[in-house]
Write a structure and sequence with these properties.
Elements: E1 2-8, H1 13-21, E2 29-36, H2 43-49, E3 53-55, H3 64-76, E4 82-85, H4 94-100, E5 104-108, H5 120-127, E6 131-138, E7 148-155, H6 162-185, H7 191-195
Helix pairs in contact: 1-6
Function: Catalyzes the transfer of a formyl group from 10-formyltetrahydrofolate to 5-phospho-ribosyl-glycinamide (GAR), producing 5-phospho-ribosyl-N-formylglycinamide (FGAR) and tetrahydrofolate.
Binding site for (6R)-10-formyltetrahydrofolate: 64, 89-92, 106
Enzyme class: transferase
Length: 196
């Protein structure tokens, strides 16, 4: 059984999909803790599902490195097999990535390497493309540049807004994330092999 720590900044819709999947006794992973970089609304899922949570607020630290060290200390207390960045809107410092790699994955609302960064959906709309997508990747020290574990295309409709496109991408992101965690648990995806 894989032990997961999930880190969020917002509503935690991908997190909720994992929590729901893990309610199935056959699903080979369990969320053991949920963390956030602020008082995120998604922490309500922790309360609902009876899972410990923590917040390491960026505002309480002098710089990214100090914040990262405090976050890492919280994460490592749970001895997770896999750490998932699920809408965490902050880059992790290199030493945090090094400590958790390769068992550190992230979801992204674009078909990478297209539209990396914090505004993937907005950038796709602005570029006028007919397709965007969703990706699950291994986190490295770049911006959405790690090895791709899974991805799927999502059509951009003529009347799409950033919000309507993002809602459809999120549905795909959730499916991909639940499947990737399953594939890591059953050995179909070998993270160490991908980053060696």
């Amino acid at each position: 059984m894989l032990k997961l720590v999930v880190l969020i900044s917002g509503g935690g819709s991908n997190l909720r999909s994992l929590l729901e999947a893990a309610q199935d006794a056959e699903y080979p992973a369990r969320v053991v803790a949920i963390g956030a970089d602020r008082d995120a609304e998604g922490l309500v899922h922790a309360e609902e599902f009876g899972i410990p949570s923590f917040a390491v607020s960026f505002a309480n630290y002098p710089d990214r490195e100090a914040w990262g060290d405090a976050l890492l200390e919280q994460v490592q207390q749970w001895q997770p097999d896999l750490v998932i960045l699920s809408g965490l809107m902050r880059l992790l410092p290199p030493r945090v990535v090094a400590a958790l790699s390769p068992n550190l994955i992230n979801t992204h609302p674009a078909y990478l390497p297209e539209f990396p960064g914090a505004h993937g959906v907005r950038d796709a709309i602005a570029a006028g493309v007919s397709e965007s997508g969703a990706s699950v990747i291994v986190v490295d020290n770049g911006v959405d540049s790690g090895p791709i574990l899974s991805q799927r295309r999502v059509a951009v409709l003529p009347n799409d807004t950033e919000s309507s496109l993002h809602d459809r991408i999120k549905l795909v992101e959730r499916e991909l994330l639940v499947q990737v965690v399953l594939d890591i648990a059953n050995g179909t995806i070998d993270l160490k092999e991908l980053v060696s």
